[in-house]
Amino acid sequence: MTFEKYQFYYNEAVKIRQKPEIALAIENQTKLSQDAQSKAKKRYELEDKLFELYRSIPVEGVDDAIFGGEDLPEHERLIQLMELWMKNDPKINILKEKLANSGKQEEIGKLENEYQDALFEYFLALIKLDLAINESREKLFSQEYKDRLKEYAEKGVLLYFLETPDAPILCKDITIDDVLESFSFGEFISLKTLFYHFVSEENPSPSMRRKTEDIVSAVDCLEHGQYRTAARTVFALLESEHKNCSAAMDNYFTLDKRARKGKQRAERIQQLLDGLKEQTYFTKVWDVVNPLYRDILDSKAESFIDRNSIIHGDYYSKQLDITEKDVIKLLLLFLNLRMISDHVQLYCEMLRESLKYTEIHIAQELKKEKK
Predict the structure, then answer these.
(1) Cα-flanking dihedrals φ and ψ of residue 245, to 5°?
(2) pLDDT tens for residues 272-314?
(3) Considering the entire predicted model, what is its pTM?
(4) Distance (Å, whole) CA 304 – CA 291
(5) How are the residues of the chain apportioned to helix, strand and coil, as percentages rounded to the nearest 5?
(6) Is the separation of the CB atoms in 280 and 303 below 8 Å?
(7) Phi/psi at 78 (nearest 5 deg)?
């Protein structure tokens, strides 16, 4: 892409963002995002403090005494614990003694209340942000724009992560190749900006830190023309996200330790989406992403490079020769899958936490009635 072409592309994008209704939506989403980030920071700081407190208390023998060493789903463990507590069962005494002997019972109780408030404030902030983005997608994306997104997706260029219609894909002088080349222009600044929130996350978990390293590595290899290495890394990122999304409710209601294959994971993700309300947009995107990813796993995707040749090193295959645009398309696919995965995991976490605190509250009220 020439500088003149990129400047034209950029100016067309700026014109879209300067429209009053779109500028207002971006401003609103930015404020809500900053609020959610602030509340997330408070939530995780309290969670870390609680973790350190609980970790400092010796727990030898507690699990065997209460659950008989039985491996139980998370929800079943909570229910049994609540029942023992309500009945004043002697089994619960070992836990009470451990807490009493630690001298940290009061501090833990106070932090638990603070954490509960912070957790639900964080969830509320995320829901507000989610609703604002969904409203923008509903009101600001014209039918013509949605149709063009579908056309692009059919050619392997997925832009469903857009939260306002910034990409000037309706301009008759801009092609799908121009859109792809816009991500690589100027040392891949646009592509790096898309993934900036990954590398800027504060105190990431070990798995997230490794994933971020892989994203940085993939973009770096892409920038230096090492396309096969970049593609292999993105394939690993895609599989990891597919697994994470499918496991969002694992071991909560039932124990499930199966190592799912691609088809089984996809079926599980579909079940989770079907079970969550207000998922229309993400279900639509999943209906596009799912068959594409399935075809990639089966090396049948016409719009994407052949995965098997890359992963298994078929150096005699012409399909091993890939381009910069091939890798960019894979990264965009990952971004769309990550968007779905984040949403599913967030709402599943909300479900788990809401059930936990609701059942604890019910148990407390029932115990009061018995007194």
Answers:
(1) -65, -45
(2) 998 876 667 899 999 999 988 888 877 776 767 777 777 777 6
(3) 0.89
(4) 12
(5) 75, 0, 25
(6) no
(7) -65, -45
